[in-house]
Amino acid sequence: MTADDSGAGPREADIAPRETGAAPPEGDSAPVDGAARADGAGAADGAGADSDDDTIAIRLEQLILGADRRYTPFQAARSAGVSMELASRFWRAMGFADIGQVKALTEADVLALRRLAGLVEAGLLSEAMAVQVARSTGQTTARLADWQIDSFLEGLTEPQDSGLTRTEITYPLVELLLPELEEFLVYVWRRQLAAATGRVVQAQDDAEMVDRRLAVGFADLVGFTRLTRRLEEEELGELVEAFETTAADLVAAHGGRLIKTLGDEVLFAADDAGIAAEIGLRLIETMANDETMPELRVGIAFGTVTTRMGDVFGTTVNLASRLTSIAPKDTVLVDEAFAEELGRTGEAPVSEADAKAAAAAAEDGAAPLPEYRFALQPMWQRPVRGLGVVEPWLLSRRT
Questions:
Q1: Is pTM beyond 0.85 here?
Q2: CA-to-CA distance for 39 and 195, rounded, in angstroms?
Q3: Residue range 291-343, pLDDT digits in tens
Q4: CA pair distance 172, 228, nearest whole angstrom
Q5: CA–CA separation, 29 vs 72, rounded Å?
Q6: Which has more pLDDT, 23 or 77?
Q7: 27: left (phi over 0), alpha (psi -120 to 50) or beta
Q8: Paired residues of 389 in beta bridges
Q9: What is the pLDDT of residue 5?
């Protein structure tokens, strides 16, 4: 699966309105998270469920949120001093579903509204930017929470010989883990924020902060569709997790940034073409040495990229995607701009003639012998849908 454009829309399932049994006053409906829908007013979802499980679910919610339900959405908005319309925009941006006028919100929900609205009132953020902050935070943490429940807590709460059920094990486990995970989350966020801020400060001008010149690469598993028909779901999940983990580690270790994972494909970026070239080749080499992994192909392009909410967009991204789709297995294809950038920085000769000329100059003592890391081989020009005629270059290590 090779993407034409990177970027993911909001999780529609999380923001769809829900039946609550009674229609709320017009304009008063507001969203909230799924845990808050477990009370009696949202009984359609919990009909027939064991009452003990319901009680434990509510206790878990109180433990995680750190407060009891006290407010309807309208009451929370009024207590925060914001309009119901703005409160609904914030909640939906965070990915919370509509619940009508159920008492499901806590003091923390009111405080979050006050903080966002306060940033707007102080002029630190525009209203549109505040909504964007809510959306980016909601999308990121929703995925993190899903992963932690599906892959982390699920494995740790397997029923033990003690005879305790999974539900009975979950509460004390969450009670122990919650403060540690919270502190670790804040630590990682601060480190990532510091790194991102450093990149922005180093930008040459304001335009470069949004539209930057980056190397963007896709790495795609070959024959993944066939694998989905052959492997069991658990085996397929393990393969995808191993691929994503390996790719994420390699990208980070060599100075790149993992933009996102798409199951059988990862999208990464680097400020430097040499870094991106090293990442691409390392990915191919590492996967080739793993017998459990299918072949890999990588496409990298260099150019202006628009960044939004941690994602990247633009012609350069689309070109990298197209290069990936036409790359032979276990190879890295790059575009002409990427090849020129490697030549400009002395990482690779753009042609063998350049390499011979540099060697001759070194023999004459006119210049030191270049230490090229990479080799580039021009491929046949070909038309690429939506991008015109493209001249791919085959990237390899220089021996």
A1: no
A2: 42
A3: 888 899 999 999 999 887 778 889 999 999 999 999 999 999 999 999 999 99
A4: 38
A5: 9
A6: 77
A7: left
A8: 383
A9: 45
Using the predicted structure, report yes or no on whether residue 133 has a pLDDT greater than 70.
Answer: yes
C-alpha triplet 144, 148, 152: angle, nearest 5°: 155
The answer on pLDDT for 271 being more than 80 is yes
DSSP 40: G
Is 90 exceeded by the pLDDT of residue 236? no
Bridge partners for 334 per DSSP: 300, 393
Residue with more model confidence, 303 or 97: 303
CA distances from 251 to 104, 108, 191 (A): 42, 37, 17
User: What does the longest C-alpha to C-alpha distance in the chain come to?
Assistant: 88
Could you tell me where the DSSP H helices lie in 122-257?
A: 127-147, 154-156, 166-201, 206-210, 224-230, 233-253
DSSP letters of 376-390?
A: EEE---EEETTTEEE
Helices of type H across 211-293: 224-230, 233-253, 273-288
Residue 219: strand pairing partners? 266, 298
Q: Between the CA atoms of 181, 183, 188 and 194, what dihedral angle is there, to the nearest 10 degrees?
A: 160
- Nearest CA among 208, 314, 310, 304 for reference residue 259: 310
Q: Outline where DSSP puts E strands in 240-365.
A: 257-261, 265-270, 296-308, 311-313, 332-334
Lowest mean pLDDT among 199-203, 240-244, 301-305, 374-378: 199-203
> Rounded to an integer, what distance in angstroms lies between the CA atom of residue 367 and that of residue 234?
58
SS3 333: strand
d(CA 390, CA 290): 32
For the chain, how many helices (H) and strands (E)? 16, 12
Residues in the chain: 399
User: What whole-number distance in Å separates Cα of residue 52 and Cα of residue 43?
Assistant: 15
* Closest to 272 in 3D by CA, of 192, 210, 330, 215: 215
Q: Is 98 exposed, middle or buried (0-12, 13-18, 19+ CB in 10 A)?
A: buried
Residue 225 has pLDDT above 80, yes or no: no
**Is 70 exceeded by the pLDDT of residue 362?**
no
Q: Which two tokens stand for residue 38?
A: 């477990």
pLDDT for 174: 84
